[in-house]
Design a protein that fits this description.
Chain lengths: 133, 544
């Protein structure tokens, strides 16, 4: 398992990733519960147009925008993050609509995301030093 | 491309423009006389022709070596080019004119002998060809009339067929060969020569057979003799078909792309030609030249010449070290002198490169100033012409009865309104350096022409705003009449890829480069109409 595979992972293959746990509390805004970010990607979308992915065949869900001072930013979510799990549900092989649905369940106040980004991988690699496999 | 029939309607007079030097009857092209035709006597003055002569000078190298060969052979054009470089005064123009006339005189004397020889050969061949079948039919009646079988129905039918086939042959020969000559080429036209030789051999072999088998044995079967004559006429018609294919059809399909560049101002055009010999290709290109290239204007080149002169005049090289410069006389002792000259020129070039040259600055501002002036004059001219045109109105039919006093014909109308625009027009022509191309007379003529044809002022001005093709101007302003074809390959050889030849005239030359149109390999790809299917590729963004 290559650590570099995370961001260019082909669906169905085993995946090893350095992830960050992010817990976002949803904010009530009128009738909606929002978290303050936008997602892009999905297995029914065109991966070539994704500006954040390393490999342009990656059909995962990426964070494309973050509202300033929103709950997501405060929780530590960054633009370009790839979302791997939402409350335990897998996000690497879902359609765009399913991903949206998983994130916007009205009954859940809190979503716990597993996200990965390149800087995490680099940090781990640097800390491992000359003992990389 | 039917190059030969386009000029048959033009009526250029050949005699008067050159005064007494030109012999009046440049009436037949030498290569249309080599083939058989029934010669009708025509008045030679009514012949219309274009006086383009292409002559090859003896053994002139194409490029590069002229520096070495300059002393060795008499280059006719050498004198004129030096005169043109140093000045554009009236004096130099008349000098060129004199040289042109003397060259013309020399050439016309030389060519006329050849022309008359080929004309006479063609006449002889033509008479031979047309009278042979008739002779075949008539001779038995003259020599052995009593022994001859009488001519039955089939035989008389053959008479009709001989008559009509001869008539058709006559018409076909008239159509193909009786065209006004457009040019005289330096070398013999190979295909025509071959065809005339073929015809001659053919007719002679028929005569031989006839003499041996028919006259000697005094054959009594007249029908057989008539059939023999018919077969001769048939074969002549087939030879005429061969002539059409070789002379007309073969060069129709474009094979080569010729890039023609004028040496003085760089005007370039590209033409597609078929498989032709170099001299015929040169002829085709010259015909296109007269139609497409804007007229050569030597006044436009004076600016760059003065700049060039300034570059050279700026530096002088002095020999400080005191070495004696050897005179450039004989060969072995010349090495030192040549070395000196080389080092001098290198020093000059290096110094010129280092010198801070502001001539580009001057050029830029000069050109901007000139453009501004031209536009200002043009605006004034357009306004003046429009105003002048408003004064002239076409008189309607009903009004004609009412006002007989001031009715004018177009010429008078033109003369009446010309003075109001004359000054503006003259100034404009001076600024664009076109004033020598248009005389007062020609301008007034053009004005009358425009008035007659209900043209707008803009249409009238069109011929003055931009230089038109050479043909639009009168013959005196062409500056391009006697052409010389310079080529490294033989003139009767065909065009090849990469062939280069030069068409020189007195003031400038046309450099022609030949490129073959590539062999095209076309492959097929079949697309099933049902195979056109599409998907949507989205990248949506949802905010959560």
């Amino acid at each position: 398992m290559n650590h570099n595979d995370t961001l260019n992972h082909s669906p169905g293959q085993p995946l090893t990733a350095v992830v960050e746990r992010i817990e976002i509390k949803k904010l009530h805004q009128g009738d909606n519960l929002i978290m303050g970010f936008s997602i892009g990607g999905g297995i029914d979308q065109d991966p070539a147009q994704n500006p954040f992915s390393q490999d342009k065949c990656d059909k995962g869900i990426y964070v494309t925008r973050i509202t300033a001072k929103g709950p997501a930013e405060l929780a530590g979510l960054m633009m370009g993050d790839k979302i791997l799990q939402v409350n335990g549900w897998d996000m690497t092989m879902v359609t765009h609509d399913r991903a949206r649905k998983r994130l916007t369940k009205k009954k859940e106040d809190v979503v716990r995301l597993l996200v990965t980004r390149k800087s995490l991988e680099d940090a781990v690699k640097k800390s491992m030093g000359p003992y990389q496999k | 491309m039917d190059t030969e029939s386009t000029y048959s309607g033009y009526s250029y007079y050949s005699g008067r423009s050159r005064g007494s030097h030109r012999h009046g009857e440049r009436s037949r092209d030498h290569h249309h006389q080599q083939h058989h035709h029934h010669h009708k006597s025509r008045s030679k003055d009514s012949r219309s022709e274009k006086s383009v002569t292409i002559n090859t000078p003896p053994a002139e190298p194409l490029l590069g070596d002229s520096a070495h060969h300059g002393e060795q052979f008499q280059d006719d054009n050498w004198g004129e080019t030096t005169t043109a470089v140093t000045g554009t005064s009236e004096h130099s123009l008349s000098q060129e004119d004199i040289v042109r006339i003397t060259k013309d005189l020399e050439d016309s004397v030389g060519l006329n002998c050849r022309r008359y020889l080929t004309l006479s050969l063609a006449v002889v061949l033509g008479l031979l060809v047309f009278l042979t079948p008739l002779a075949f039919l008539v001779i038995p009646h003259l020599l052995w009339p009593d022994k001859l079988q009488s001519c039955g129905t089939a035989c008389e039918g053959l008479f009709i067929s001989v008559a009509f086939k001869l008539l058709i042959l006559l018409l076909a020969v008239w159509a193909l060969f009786f065209r006004t000559p457009k040019a005289s080429l330096p070398r013999v036209f190979v295909f025509r020569a071959l065809l005339s030789v073929l015809v001659l051999l053919f007719v002679l072999s028929y005569w031989l057979f006839y003499g041996v088998r028919i006259i000697d044995t005094q054959d009594q079967n007249y029908q057989g003799i008539v059939q023999y004559a018919v077969s001769l006429v048939d074969a002549l018609l087939f030879i005429h078909y061969l002539a059409i294919v070789l002379l007309e059809l073969r060069q129709l399909q474009p094979c080569f792309s010729m890039c023609v560049t004028r040496s003085t101002d760089g005007e370039t055009r590209h033409y597609n030609l078929g498989q032709l010999s170099i001299q015929r290709a040169a002829l085709a290109i010259l015909q296109h030249y007269y139609c497409d290239f804007p007229v050569h204007n030597p006044a436009l080149l004076s600016a760059s010449k003065s700049r060039a002169a300034k570059h050279l005049a700026g530096l002088k090289v002095y020999n400080v070290d005191g070495e004696l410069a050897a005179p450039p006389a004989e060969g072995p002792g010349n090495n030192a002198g040549a070395g000196m000259a080389q080092s001098q020129s290198r020093a000059m070039i290096a110094a010129a490169a280092r010198r801070r040259d502001t001539s580009h600055n001057e050029l830029y501002y000069e050109e901007a100033e000139l453009e501004r002036r031209v536009r200002k004059r043009k605006a004034r001219l357009v306004v003046a012409v429009e105003e002048a045109f408003t004064h002239v109105k076409r008189l309607q039919e009903e009004e004609q009865r009412r006002a007989p006093g001031e009715v004018m014909d177009p010429r008078e109308a033109a003369q009446a309104i010309f003075p109001s625009m004359a000054r503006a027009l003259q100034k404009y022509l001076r600024t664009t350096k076109q004033q020598h191309c248009h005389s007062m007379e020609s301008i007034q003529q053009h004005l009358a022409f425009c008035i007659t044809n209900n043209m707008t002022p803009k249409a009238f001005l069109e011929s003055y705003l931009a230089p038109g093709p050479t043909l639009q101007y009168s013959r005196d302003h062409w500056l391009a009449r006697q052409w010389t074809l310079v080529s490294e390959d033989s003139l009767t050889s065909g065009l090849k890829d990469g062939a280069i030849f030069l068409l020189k005239c007195v003031d400038f030359s046309l450099v022609v480069t030949c490129r073959r149109i590539p062999y095209i390999q076309l492959a097929e790809e079949y697309i099933d109409p049902k195979s056109h299917k599409f998907v949507l590729r989205l990248q949506s963004e949802t905010s959560v």
